[in-house]
Design brief:
heterodimer, A: 294 residues, alpha/beta, six-stranded mixed beta sheet, four-stranded antiparallel beta sheet, globular, B: 265 residues, mainly alpha, 10 helices, 0% strand
Chain lengths: 294, 265
């Protein structure tokens, strides 16, 4: 069964672009990645799903029901973590969470305590005394406290330190094992890779790719930057799997896809001063897709 | 119910401050009256020699301010202005604040319809307006009564407060309507108070000029003014009907536009 069905969803903001003809489905029980650079339309899509804004055309269904017509009903089972969390500044954390819980007709007090403990959140502090990361934690607890069947996360990790990110991901996996469906929006490829089974890539308002994570992993590019003291042959690194090779003075950069051992052997036989191996940023991945399409 | 209680709590502090200011305004003015009345008729005679337009500006065109009822009628102009400012700001604020404080991604993803959110918010605003009205009513009765020297004032005060309540409702509903239409939540309060001050100035101009009475229906401050309500006067049915119409239309607008429009996030 599809938990989310989005069909030809379009949203125009006056003259500026919102999203164009976005369609994808999220199946029950999966963690679905929704990835794209900032301003690509991830938040617009999500806000349309939550009927915070209304689509110009197209439709979206959640749990098989139109998300505008049945908004209040389907929202009972949705937990949402916005990309920027803002709450009533003068409230205490616990009061805010209880207020949030009061919208769902069940007792959430035990779950609030559990989640706060996992996320290491001080419930007695006032919202405006919290740091950005701590506000994000409030957002996480607030989004999960009513045991929703669908969790929608918009850039959930910004502001969280790596340890908290790890705890948060563990929490999500636990929820997922219990059967919860998760829509995970992010501009960081690696965290989507870690979590998701399928992924939709959005750019400039359009979905440009809908793929299984396993397929995307085969396209697992790494970005290499090597600094050397001596000069080497320009074509030394020109082996299978190397793309966008550039040699400038003593700095060599390229993208690599393939068996990582081969390239490491190649590097180890050169006297290097410094080495950086990074995830390529999204632009580069997108470039790759555009090239393939073109 | 939870939103209603939350809003009451959120506005509690500001309501208390408004009430204190209101009581202080009435108490301070009545203190002045004490000084005025002890100087006897002379003050009244002096004021009678004021040019008509000047008297009109202070709202004391037809009143004998040596009498406590006349003095209160003049003061009522400012009491009503204050209550109206409170109502207009409250109406605009309570609808627009989620967007202004960026909390809409909290409240509007909860399993409640926008219609019921508006209803809860407007009910909370109504309670605030009623409380300010009652505080004004009670403190007026008490403080004016202290100086009334047997003059029957409570009937007139009651009538004025009912009139003021309708004016409060008008400005609250106009404020909420503007907040519902307004795309920028930060401007809603400013626009509402702007409209309020414009109508207030218009009311003054009507008093001063004396020739543009036909414009009265444009300014709620003239619907139930002391010169028509006091000394046995009655509420004008036309103005009452028009008030109900304004309130119904602007509340209707609030529901219609706020339920349909994109939230600014």
């Amino acid at each position: 069964m599809d938990v989310i069905e989005i069909k030809n969803l379009t949203k125009n903001y006056g003259k500026s672009r919102g999203i164009i003809d976005v369609s994808f489905n999220v199946e029950e029980g999966e963690i679905f990645g929704f990835i794209g650079p900032n301003g690509a339309g991830k938040s617009t899509t999500i806000r349309t799903l939550l009927s915070l804004i209304s689509p110009s055309s197209g439709s979206a269904k959640i749990f098989g029901k139109d998300c505008r017509e049945f908004g209040p009903e389907i929202k009972k089972e949705i937990g949402y973590l916005p990309s920027e969390v803002f709450y009533y500044d003068k409230m205490k954390v616990i009061d805010l969470l209880n207020y949030s819980a009061s919208f769902y007709k069940k007792d959430c007090s035990k779950r609030i305590k559990e989640l706060a403990e996992i996320m290491d959140l001080d419930l007695k502090k006032r919202i405006d005394d919290l740091s950005f990361g701590n506000k994000k934690k409030v957002g996480i607890v607030q989004g999960l406290l009513h045991d929703p069947k669908l969790i929608i996360l918009d850039e959930p990790t910004s502001g969280l330190d790596p340890l908290m990110q790890q705890k948060f991901f563990d929490l999500l996996r636990e929820e997922n094992i219990k059967g919860t469906t998760i829509l995970f929006s992010s501009h960081i490829l690696s965290e989507v890779q870690k979590m998701c089974s399928r992924v939709a890539i959005i750019k400039e308002g359009r979905i440009i790719k809908l793929e299984k994570m396993s397929t995307l992993k085969d396209n697992n590019y790494k970005k290499f930057k090597i600094e050397i003291d001596t000069s080497i042959d320009k074509n030394y690194f020109k082996i299978k799997g190397v793309n966008n090779l550039s040699v400038k003075d003593n700095v060599i950069t390229f993208l690599f896809k393939g068996n990582i051992n081969e390239i490491m052997k190649k590097i180890s036989s050169v006297d290097i001063a410094n080495l950086y191996i990074e995830e390529p940023d999204l632009e580069e991945i997108f470039m790759h897709y555009y090239e393939k399409e073109g | 119910m939870n939103i209603f209680l939350r809003e009451l709590k959120a506005h509690r502090k500001s309501l208390i401050i408004w009430c204190i200011c209101m009581v202080f305004l009435i108490a301070a003015s009545m203190g002045k009256y004490e000084g005025l009345s002890s100087s006897g008729q002379s003050m009244s005679e002096l004021l009678n020699d004021f040019p008509k337009s000047l008297k009109a500006i202070f709202g004391m065109g037809t009143f004998d301010i040596a009498k406590v009822s006349g003095y209160f009628a003049v003061m009522f102009l400012f009491i009503q202005l204050m209550a109206a400012v409170h109502a207009a700001m409250l109406g605009a604020d309570i609808i627009s604040k989620e967007e202004r404080d960026k909390t809409s991604e909290f409240l509007f993803v909860k399993p409640v319809s926008r219609t019921s959110i508006i209803s809860s918010k407007l009910s909370a605003a109504l309670v605030n307006v009623v409380i300010l009205n009652l505080v004004t009513f009670i403190s007026s009765l008490a403080l004016v009564g202290k100086y009334s020297k047997g003059e029957a004032v409570s009937g007139d005060i009651t009538k004025l407060m009912i009139g003021m309540f309708i004016v409060q409702l008008i400005f609250m509903s106009v404020g909420s309507g503007i907040a519902a239409i307004s795309k920028n939540p930060k401007t809603a309060t400013a626009v509402s108070t702007g409209i309020l001050l414009t109508t207030f100035i218009l009311a003054e101009l009507i008093d001063v000029s004396g020739k543009i009475d036909f414009l009265k229906f444009l300014t709620p401050f003239k619907y139930f003014s002391p010169d028509t309500l006091m000394y046995g006067g009655a509420f004008g049915l036309g103005f009452l009907a028009f008030s109900v119409l304004i309130i119904a239309v602007t509340f209707g607008m609030t529901y219609k536009f706020f339920s349909a429009r994109d939230l600014r996030i």
